[in-house]
Amino acid sequence: QASYQSGTIYEWNIDGMNEYHIINKLQEMTMVSNAHKIRNNSDKAVANILIVGFTSQIKGWWDNVLTTQQQTEILEAIQVNESKEPILNNNNETIEDVVSTLIYNI
Questions:
Q1: Structure confidence at residue 6 as a pLDDT band (50, 70, 90)
Q2: What number is the average pLDDT over the span 72-88?
Q3: Which structural domain, as residue segments, surrounds residue 68?
Q4: What is the 3-state secondary structure (H, E, C) of the chain?
Q5: Over 80: is that where the pLDDT of 81 sits?
Q6: Is residue 90 part of a domain?
Q7: pLDDT: is 93 or 10 the higher one?
Q8: For range 8-15, the mean pLDDT
Q9: How far is the C-alpha of 81 from the C-alpha of 36, rounded, in Å?
Q10: Residues 68, 49: contact at Cβ < 8 Å?
Q11: Does 31 reside within a domain?
Q12: Cα distances (Å, whole numbers) of residue 77 to 14, 15, 43, 95
């Protein structure tokens, strides 16, 4: 069983992996993000921690395939309802959805 700690930068590399192993790697990324979120890190901060660990193909995708606008859209993602309206929390603030959006786009 894997164990992940907040404050640790993990390397993310999907080179040579088949679809099954890529999905497992994305699940690992989700588990690492949860470890960071438990420590009250913002969704955007957690996504940036994941991005720092990108290597090889996945780093090339982030650095060279996505435009600056696409990167910004991922890093500014918020939760929306079916009508594409922002979902608000109890403080009437939008809810970040950065990590899920990042992982979905990979």
A1: low
A2: 97
A3: 19-105
A4: CCCCCCCCCCCECCCCCCHHHHHHHHHHHHHHHHHHHHCCCCHHHHHHHHHHCECHHHHHHHHHHCCHHHHHHHHCCECECCCCCECECCCCCECECHHHHHHHHC
A5: yes
A6: yes
A7: 93
A8: 90
A9: 26
A10: no
A11: yes
A12: 24, 27, 9, 9
Domain-located, residue 9: no
- In total, how many domains does the chain have? 1
Q: Is residue 45 part of a domain?
A: yes
In one-letter notation, the amino acid at residue 8 is T
Contacts of 33 (CB under 8 A, 6+ apart): 46, 47, 50, 99, 103
Quote the pLDDT of residue 49.
94
- CA 86, CA 89: separation in Å to the nearest integer? 10
